[in-house]
Amino acid sequence: MDYRGHELSANVSMLFTELPYPDRYAAAAQAGFRVVESWWPFAAPDPSVAEIDSFVRTVEVAGVSLGALNFYGGDIPGGERGVASHPDRQDQLAANVRAVVAIAERTGCRLFNLLYGQLDDRWSPSEQALCATDAIRSAASGVAAIGGTVLIDPLTKGLNGRYPLCTADDVLAVLGRLQDVDNLSMLFDTFHLGSNGVDLVATASTVDVAHVQLADSPGRGEPGSGSLPIDETLDALKAAGYQGVAACEYKPTTDTIASLAWI
C-alpha cells in the first residue's frame, strides 16, 4: 500500500483495535498492508521463549513484514513513557534489549523505538540525562550486531507527563551527546511534532530521519482529520531522500477500514 511515493505500514497497536491484538496482523494484511509495526507487545520486558515464539508465528502466519518495534516502555497504559532515563530500571532495559534482538533475528525487524522516560524528582535532570545517554548507547550497541537502528521519539506536551523531548531540537540534542554511535536516529512523528508547533515541512527537509509515523492534529486521527500539512510533509521527506515506510500510527475517527479512505 503506497501513498505519495511512500510505502505505508500499519501500527497494529493503534489500528484494527476492533480486534484482539493477535488478529490485527492478518487484518492489516487483508487491508493491503505489506508492513506492520507495534508497540512492545508483552507486559514484561523479558517475555518467555514461548511468548516470543507465539508472537513470531503471528507475524509469519499473517504474511506481513515487521518493520518496526518499540522497546519496553514501562506501564504505557498506566502513564509511563519509557525507562531509559530511570537509573532503577536499567536491568529491565538490558533484559529487554536481549528480547528485542531475539525477535529481530527471527523477523528481520531493524527499527526499534526507545522512549526516553519522564522526569522523576528522585534524581536530578543531569543524572537522568546521563542515565538515558548510557541506556541509549547500550541499546544501540545491542541491536548493532543485527543491523538495527534505535529511534528516539519526541512526544506531545501535555499528554505524556514530564516527558522532556518535545521537538526535533530536543532529540537532536540527545543524539549530539552520542555522535560516535552511528545507528541512532530521530523518529519523525507528525502528530507529536506538529502538536508541539514544529514546522513539519521545514524539519522534514533538513533533518535526517530513519522512520516516519503519520497522524493528524488535533485529535491524532487519520490524515485529513486535522490541520497538519501531511501531504506536503511527505513530499518534503521524499525530496530530501527519505526512502523508508510511513507508518499509520493514528487513532481512527471511525472503524479502521473506513479510516483508510484517506489513502
TrEMBL record:
Which keywords does the record carry?
Isomerase
* Family per similarity comment: Belongs to the hyi family.
Pfam families tied to this protein: AP_endonuc_2
**PANTHER family hit by this protein:** HYDROXYPYRUVATE ISOMERASE-RELATED (PTHR43489:SF6), ISOMERASE (PTHR43489)
What is the protein's given name? Xylose isomerase
Q: Which Gene Ontology terms describe the biological processes this protein takes part in?
A: glyoxylate metabolic process
Q: For the Xylose isomerase-like TIM barrel domain, which residue ranges apply?
A: 26-263
Spell out the InterPro entries in the cross-references. Answer: HyI-like (IPR026040), Sugar_Epim/Isomerase (IPR050417), Xyl_isomerase-like_sf (IPR036237), Xyl_isomerase-like_TIM-brl (IPR013022)
Q: Does the keyword Isomerase apply?
A: yes
Q: What GO molecular function annotations does the UniProt record carry, in alphabetical order?
A: hydroxypyruvate isomerase activity
- At the top level, the lineage of the source is Bacteria
- Is Isomerase one of the keywords UniProt gives this record? yes
